[in-house]
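Need a sequence for this fold. Nothing fancy.
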C-alpha cells in the first residue's frame, strides 16, 4: 500500500495559509483540512457551555462532550459540533482570538491533533495550522512555513471581514489583534508556532496566491521525484 501524500503548512494568522492550502488541494485533487476551524469550533463550544477559553481545568471537564467533526460536501470542508454545521459562524475576530487561547492548552491540542493525524493516515491531504509540521505531521517530507508581514496580514483580514459584512472592526484593531495572536501563538509553552529546519519558508507579502502555489507545487514535485 502506497504512503499517503501529506502536505503540512504552518504559519501565523492571515498569511494566506488556508487560501494556499485549498489551492494546493484543488491542484493535486486531494483533501484539504483546515485545522484552525477545529480550534475555532472548540472555542465556540466552550463559550456556549459557559467555560472560559483560558480555563484549562474547566475545559478538561467538557472535552469529552466536545463532539467536533469534519465532513466534506460540494462546498468543501464543513465543521460540525454534534450534528450542527457551524462552519459559517466561525470566521469572527472573537473566535479567532478564542482559538488562539484555547489551543494553548495541551489537553485540547492533543484531542484535536489526534483527529487530524487520523485524516493524514487515511487520505492524501494538505493541512494548515500552527503545529502541523511540528506535531501533527512531523514525519512528512512536505513541510512549508507560510508567512507575511503583520501589516499585510491585517489588510487582508480586514478585507475579508468587510466582505463578510462586518463593518465595526478597524485596521488598527485588526492589526493589534494579529500582533497579539502572533505573540500568543509563538510564546505558548506547549507546541508554539515555529518554523522547523526542514520546512520551506514562503513569504506571501509580495506574492499572489498563484505565485505562492507555483512555488509550493514545484517543491512538492521535486521531493516526490526523489
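Here you go.
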Amino acid at each position: 500500500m502506497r504512503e499517503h501524500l501529506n502536505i503540512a503548512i504552518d504559519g501565523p494568522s492571515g498569511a494566506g495559509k488556508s487560501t494556499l492550502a485549498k489551492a494546493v488541494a484543488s491542484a493535486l485533487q486531494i483533501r484539504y483540512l483546515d485545522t484552525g476551524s477545529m480550534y475555532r469550533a472548540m472555542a465556540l463550544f466552550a463559550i456556549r457551555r459557559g467555560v472560559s477559553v483560558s480555563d484549562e481545568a474547566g475545559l478538561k471537564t467538557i472535552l469529552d462532550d466536545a463532539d467536533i467533526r469534519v465532513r466534506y460536501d460540494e462546498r468543501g470542508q464543513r465543521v460540525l459540533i454534534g450534528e450542527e454545521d457551524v462552519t459559517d459562524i466561525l470566521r469572527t475576530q472573537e473566535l479567532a482570538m478564542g482559538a488562539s487561547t484555547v489551543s494553548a492548552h495541551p489537553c485540547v491540542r492533543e484531542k484535536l491533533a489526534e483527529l487530524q493525524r487520523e485524516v493524514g493516515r487515511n487520505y492524501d491531504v494538505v493541512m494548515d495550522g500552527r503545529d502541523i509540521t511540528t506535531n501533527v505531521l512531523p514525519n512528512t517530507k512536505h513541510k512549508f512555513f507560510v508567512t507575511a508581514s503583520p501589516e499585510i496580514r491585517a489588510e487582508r483580514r480586514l478585507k475579508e471581514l468587510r466582505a463578510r459584512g462586518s463593518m465595526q472592526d478597524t485596521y488598527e484593531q485588526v492589526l493589534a489583534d494579529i500582533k497579539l495572536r502572533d505573540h500568543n501563538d509563538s510564546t505558548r509553552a506547549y507546541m508554539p508556532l515555529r518554523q522547523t529546519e526542514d520546512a520551506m519558508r514562503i513569504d506571501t507579502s509580495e506574492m499572489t496566491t498563484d505565485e505562492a502555489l507555483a512555488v509550493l507545487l514545484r517543491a512538492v514535485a521535486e521531493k516526490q521525484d526523489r
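For context: The chain has a mean pLDDT of 92.
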